[in-house]
Amino acid sequence: MKSANRLGIATALLMSGALAASGLALASGVASASPSAAHAAFGFSTLDNAADPTFNQLLGINDHGLIAGYFGSGAQDHPNKGYLLGAGSYTNENFPGSVQTQVTGLNNRGVTVGFWSTMNNTNMVNDNFGFYESNGQFHNVNFPAGDNASPPVNQLLGVNDANVAVGFYTDAAGNSHGYQYQIGSGKFSLVNVPGATSSTAAAINGRGDVAGFYTNAAGTVQGFLRTVFGQVTNLAFPGASATSALGVTGSDEVVGFYTTGSGDAAASHGFTWTRQGGFATVDDPNGVGTTTINGVNDAGDLVGFYVDANGNTDGFLGTPARTRTFTVRLAPMPQGTITVVRDEGGNVAAKVRASGLTPGSAHGIALVDRDGAVLAALQPVTADGTGQVNDKLVSSGFSGQTPDGSRLVITQDTTSGSPVIGRTAPLRADQATYRLHAVEAGFGTPSGWATITYNPAASTITVRVNASGFTPGMHAAHIHIGSCQSQGGVVYMLMDLTANAQGQIVDEVRTVPGVASPIPAGAWYLNVHQGDSNQILTNGQPTSLFRPLTCGQIG
Fold it and tell me: Per-residue pLDDT for 2 more than 80?
């Protein structure tokens, strides 16, 4: 089983002697992979089973997004326990009567494969037996060899939709032998790799092409892709000391990991490889230098694991960065409600619940007549660090009947004559709670639309804005982390947008270069501020002109 201080199926197999000499028959046709190497763009999510957040490895993913994996390091009293992860829910899957189980692969037809053990020894040298599970029934699978290792080592690592599984067994001399297993007929056949002294078949696609890794006569570990017709392509990442292929798609995109350096300087990096584009490095940003990719589906989604800063092994899902365009409504700010009540003295009071204000800013609240003349000033409110005011009760000295057409308004700050930035509808005797309507003095309600395009090939985010209701002049604009309701820090600063004399922002385009990661849907928002970039901060703190005029949630 896998060791807590080693990475990946490949290194786990080293402990079982799977990379030692084997003497397999040669297959026909050998090619070498392109030597090019680049970096690929993915969005990453850490996925750890709460049953053991210290050690998770994700090993396979099918086209429905169902993931195979396990938790537990395999150290004594910390056994491997298999599971499936789908739609955010974990389902245990363990071979009946086993002490340890790993679920290593699965297809789109409900078949899973893996291996199990009756042992959980201190030295982590345990017996391994392959299995497949279908329709709730587990079946033992072990290559019929007369020279098995002691204890025996037999693992199934992948399966395709034709129910052909691949894996390896270890012989008495410690040599590994890759094989295929036909689930329907129970037939075994070896997977032969030219020049191999030891080999492992780790994955198989729908047409029968197999990916894996082998050791050559010089003791170097290299990956391979073997087609159903016997053509073998060697996969050696440029400059790497070892390359292990662990997954393959229907179009023969291969994934795995490669190692660089040795001893304390050793590092592990994930990779993808295609015939057209060659190699690309893929590292989870939380585990650069400790990343292993174990599985891939036909959509290009990756699963694997990394070691975090605390020494825990974490599973991850990597989603390929594709060009994506978001259409974002720029809603006027602030938003919220004001509820009109009477305090104990019979004075007009209000409960204010609002968002989209300048973080930390103070604002006046007033009762005004139909002409905007102030009837009474209520107690001011102060927004928190996310720009919110939550159910703040404020009162006034006004105890009479509110005149027809009177409203409650919120002002930009607490100074006399401060402009109104939001107001209620005219107050009515039969209504208590009113929606807060944002306004920009003289230009109506700010609003508009933005299109935001992430281009992974160009490493850019392009923002195109069309809006109205703005004070003429320059307006700062930023992409922030968080939400329009709960504001966060700036992710990307845009060049200021310009509103014309009519208060319109017309087809203004801004491009952010050097963007390394895709937009996380729902986690970012676009603010267009009242002031320009030179006005919205003083000594690093927001001024009243920081106020968002509009906000659009991305994703």
Answer: no
Q: Quote the CA–CA distance of 115 and 199 in Å, as a whole number.
A: 18
pTM value? 0.62
* Residue 191 CB coordination number (10 Å): 25
The DSSP letter of residue 357 is S
CATH architecture for residues 333-438: Sandwich (2.60)
Q: What is the pLDDT of residues 19-50, one digit of tens each?
A: 222 222 222 334 444 444 555 678 899 999 99
- On the question of a cis peptide bond just before residue 79, with omega within 30 degrees of 0, the verdict is no
Write down the domain spans for the chain.
8-320, 333-438, 444-554
276: Cα separation from own chain's centroid: 26
- Name the CA dihedral angle for 407, 408, 414, 417, rounded to a multiple of 10 degrees: 0
Domains 333-438 and 444-554 share a fold: yes
Q: Topology of 444-554 in CATH?
A: Immunoglobulin-like (2.60.40)
pLDDT in tens, 359-378: 999 999 999 999 999 999 99
The whole-angstrom separation of Cα 466 and Cα 16 is: 63
Res 104 pLDDT > 80? yes
Quote the Cα angle for 555-306-153, to 5°: 130
User: Other CB atoms closer than 10 Å to residue 399's CB: what's the count?
Assistant: 12
Pick the CATH number of 8-320 from 2.120.10.30, 1.20.1730.10, 3.30.1280.10, 3.30.1330.40: 2.120.10.30
